[in-house]
Automatic annotation (TrEMBL), chain A:
Cofactor: thiamine diphosphate
Record's subcellular location: Mitochondrion matrix
Any one Pfam family match given in the protein's UniProt record, by short name: E1_dh
Protein name per UniProt: 2-oxoisovalerate dehydrogenase subunit alpha
Biological source species: Hirundo rustica rustica
From TrEMBL, chain B:
SUPFAM superfamilies: Thiamin diphosphate-binding fold (THDP-binding) (SSF52518), TK C-terminal domain-like (SSF52922)
UniProtKB keywords: Oxidoreductase
Cofactor(s) needed by this chain: thiamine diphosphate
InterPro entries in the cross-refs: THDP-binding, Transketo_C/PFOR_II, Transketolase-like_Pyr-bd, Transketolase_C
Top-level taxon of the source organism: Eukaryota
EC number: 1.2.4.4
Domain Transketolase-like pyrimidine-binding: from-to ranges: 19-194
Naturally occurring in which organism (per UniProt): Hirundo rustica rustica
Catalysis: reaction(s): N(6)-[(R)-lipoyl]-L-lysyl-[protein] + 3-methyl-2-oxobutanoate + H(+) = N(6)-[(R)-S(8)-2-methylpropanoyldihydrolipoyl]-L-lysyl-[protein] + CO2
Any one GO MF annotation of this record: branched-chain 2-oxo acid dehydrogenase activity
Biological processes annotated in GO: branched-chain amino acid catabolic process; response to nutrient
The protein's name: 3-methyl-2-oxobutanoate dehydrogenase (2-methylpropanoyl-transferring)
Organism lineage string: Eukaryota, Metazoa, Chordata, Craniata, Vertebrata
Amino acid sequence: MSLKGRGRGTAHLYVVGAWPRDAESPEERPQFPGASAEFAERLEFIQPQVLAGIPVYRVMDRQGQVLRPSEDPQLPKEQVLKLYRTMTLLNTMDRILYESQRQGRISFYMTNYGEEGTHVGSAAALDASDLVFGQYREAGVTQVSPGVLLYRGYPLELFMAQCYGNARDPGKGRQMPVHYGCPERHFVTISSPLATQIPQAVGAAYAIKRADASRAVVCYFGEGAASEGDAHAGFNFAATLECPVVFFCRNNGYAISTPTSEQYRGDGIAARGPGYGLLSIRVDGNDVFAVYNATREARRRAVAENQPFLIEAMTYRVRPGKKPDPPLRGLGKVGGGIGHHSTSDDSSAYRSVDEVNYWDKQDHPISRLRHYMARRQWWDEAQEKAWRKNSRKMVLEAFEQAEREPKPPPQLLFSDVYREMPPRLRQQREQLERHLETYGEHYPLQQFQK
Amino acid sequence: MTILFLFKFHISPGQTQKMNLFQSITSALDNALAKDPTAVVFGEDVAFGGVFRCTVGLRDKYGKDRVFNTPLCEQGIVGFGIGIAVTGATAIAEIQFADYIFPAFDQIVNEAAKYRYRSGDLFNCGSLTIRAPWGCVGHGALYHSQSPEAFFAHCPGIKQEKENPTDSEIDLDMEQVPIEPYTIPLSQAEVLQTGSDVTMVAWGTQVHVIKEVAAMAQEKLGVSCEVIDLRTILPWDTETICKEQLLTFFKFSKPIVQ
């Protein structure tokens, strides 16, 4: 059996042995419990064919033109506008929070530039109650309905509250920025260690399968995290235990400074799926409809058939504007220069300007969708201008509010370690309180809520 | 989340049955599966009854979706268990030997222990229990005999119980164990015998050794030993230990043997 790539060459996944000339008697077939296969009489190693690997599914070309009308999900105009507004609002929030980190207002930030299509396209394809386990670049998933942020979707104030670690943060200010969580919107709190969420997502899917036949679990991670043992564990458990989970891998070409050529030698992450018995697909992550279609179908079948799916979304990390934007003023263009892993990174150390220019100019999920919308007269310059102004205003208002909020009370250092506070922690808390009564002047207590 | 390095329930009123340690574990699992429909038990070789016979009969009784094997992967077992618990269901994960818990160290320490705290109590995996036998195979050498409790003893966010396990698979301690479900308080040490000269604290297999030592000390040296089974490593019962140690210390200023 072989898998033909588009055009040149053939990717062999299995060895074709000598076919029997007549029907084999049962004694001639291998009888091993570990694998069901034919015998082969020719010594031949399976070639991991990387050059003509698994093809990249797309719906639109780079100018936002649908290639096969049957693949256009034909989403209603309002939903497409929601996709666009979510991606651009995310972009706006990213710019402002990124700049705020450079100015020392928040400690750390991670942007989503260039990868908005993966988050938003997949989020739109899920049911509202599907449980999401993310890595850290999935802020877009929690923004289901940006046009009506106040009554659906995660409020901007709470994104900001978490990044500022202020008293309004539902996470009580304990984690680094971008470690969001929201039980009401079925988004499990992010943690810093990579790939740990993968086997957890599988366990959750197993429990959900027993409890509710209509929900799926979606698990996001990057191509770097996919190297962790937890990823291997998760894939294998999901397949053997028949869990309704969709694994969504964002392959953006880099894990901090490590390019994919140093991360793996096989054909990306999608090629690993069949090895575990997972139905797998590779999609163009910058094509929001390809992402939508793949996620929608994977999710539907995962629930209907109780089996896991693996989606590898190919994309790229970019950043708007080659120069830093002036502080908190102006939106700048969408698309631009080098995207860093985070505010702790300067990727000019390991990526060439030419490399990034291509992605920025030729292929960006936001501009691609805008072309699609413009073609249908669903969007124009006037709307773009108005939306930019409005979205920027919303973000800035939330931002300024978050700046003014105090930090959580110091007593919250001790709660939630256990469900009930044990005596020794209560004693430590009391010690701190007594200490602050005496030496409080040496601490910036005025910044903290009482 | 609770890590149970074996456990044994003590005598209380009601109908009892003679059981060894592993039978009492099976009984406890049976009770948990009976009264909590979300509860599932899983790990390596759990389906046929387990290498220590702790899950004998449970799959037939409760079904293959509730008592099942996982692939051979401890980080997966614990990660998977965390995920179940995050949804609110009860997860009872088995690690085949405590010596093999180390691949799961990251999931235990970085994830399970911190789940509630880091999320501001939005999420937790409190309904996860991890069971791991230790010290049970006499011929097991380096990799079937370890006592890894100290690695976890300083990890806030987990609870670690360790009660009287046995010396070997064959020579199992038989006790009268109640059949019906009941609860015992965690985090309480048990004073097994009172004494006035020396306080000895032990957990697990060493409790049996220390009881013998106490008898020998009394007989050969005329020394009166207080014997305490710590039972819980984290949190440990500082009140009982310190009170008892103080009594013997003030009496004769003798050293503390642990």
